[in-house]
Amino acid sequence: MKIIEALKQIKYLVKKAEDLQQKIGSNCADMEFDQPLYSDMKLKISEWLQAHTDVVREVQRLRFRLQKTNVMTSLTIPLNDVSVTRTIFEWVQRRKDLAKLELDAWKKLTDRNLKDGQYQQTSGQMGIMKMRRYYDPSEKERKISMLTMEPMLIDSALEIVNCTTDLLE
């Protein structure tokens, strides 16, 4: 089974579990005058509960295999002319929020609307005041460009690896 198949199977099984929950909730009790849906409703509820338990176990098993595969499988992605190798898990985390956190830090580097200008010294004489940057603007722009593009590159690589990688047991 490929990663993508497991992801789709998990989604299907969760929906199946929700459907079983709805059946259980709608049919677990009724009034004497109601016509039961099945001749042995107690047995049917028991079967639905067992089926739900089985579905949840399968979701857990698939999620474990998926995480194991993600932790154990390396993926190399070219970023800014450099090939970076990390596990699928690390790339997923990077895509989820870590790349954005890094991007947000680089975006905080600004001139803070400060301008070079004149000021009056305590002696009354006029002086020139220059704004100082404690970062390299060209490096900032390069990093912002790279970090803005990174999620798309990660998404593309993950789509491919999800279709080509078998789940580990």
Walk me through what this model shows:
There is one protein chain. With 169 residues, this protein is mostly helical. Helices cover 62% and strands 12% of the residues. It is built from four helices and four strands. The strands form two sheets. Strands 1-2 form a two-stranded antiparallel sheet. The radius of gyration is 29 Å and the shape is elongated.
Average pLDDT metric: 95
Strand arrangement within the widest β-sheet reads: 1-2
Radius of gyration: 29 Å
Show unreliable segments.
none
Determine the number of helices (DSSP H or I, runs of at least 4 residues).
4
- Taken as a percent bin, the fraction of beta residues is 5-15%
Please report the total strand number as a whole number. 4
Largest beta sheet, briefly?
Answer: 2 strands, antiparallel
Instruction: Find the structural class using helix and strand composition.
Output: mainly alpha
H/E element order: HHEEHEEH
What is the count of structural domains?
Answer: 2
End-to-end span in angstroms? 10 Å
Shape: elongated
Helix content: 55-70%
Features:
4 helices; 169 residues; mainly alpha
Blueprint of the fold:
Layout: H1 3-27, H2 41-72, E1 74-79, E2 82-87, H3 88-107, E3 117-120, E4 126-129, H4 137-164
Antiparallel strand pairs: 1-2, 3-4
Helix pairs in contact: 1-2, 3-4
Could you write a compact summary of the structure shown?
The chain is built from 4 helices and 4 strands, in the order ααββαββα. It is mainly α and 169 residues long. The strands form 2 sheets. The protein has a two-stranded antiparallel sheet.
